[in-house]
Amino acid sequence: RKEVEQDPGPFNVPEGATVAFNCTYSNSASQSFFWYRQDCRKEPKLLMSVYSSGNEDGRFTAQLNRASQYISLLIRDSKLSDSATYLCVVNKQSYNTDKLIFGTGTRLQVFP
Amino acid sequence: SQTIHQWPATLVQPVGSPLSLECTVEGTSNPNLYWYRQAAGRGLQLLFYSVGIGQISSEVPQNLSASRPQDRQFILSSKKLLLSDSGFYLCAWSVYRVYTEAFFGQGTRLTVV
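ok -> structure tokens follow
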């Protein structure tokens, strides 16, 4: 089983739509969780961290369910500029090791 | 503020040639450092990570190696490139032993021909 799993998509949605991405992780000891955005042929950039209580940043809402080892990202009122690949990331930290494990990403295409 | 530099941006190398990609971080001390590779249309694969000078952990067996000769310098190398080494190589850093995000360099697009 992969350490971080995402639906690869693509998700094709019209402008203004609400879209949700899901991610599951296998290591119950994972401590930190993030969503990154990657545009075509560019480096990934942090979109938002995911906190246990859930958090919101404008049109973006992230949630974490530790019991189910599940992370989600909700995008409301989609814009054309939201078209990108969204990467779920889990930070696995223990003594003398610190790793960021990326999901393979979910591609979003917003059309007019 | 912290910045990460990675070069070159693009590289075309023949099979069997050596490789050296360099990454440096400015504005922070003792960062965690990472090398990832992304094959075309695929996810990010963690190749190496380092929590300190000379401390390198390898994630997957391959003909690549990494070194950290200085605190904020991370080098990815190969003695003989294979066609399968083609991909998008990304260096990243994060704050040591803090649960925080990583920041990426702009990447090197390597094509082995």
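The first strand of chain A starts at residue 4 and ends at 6.
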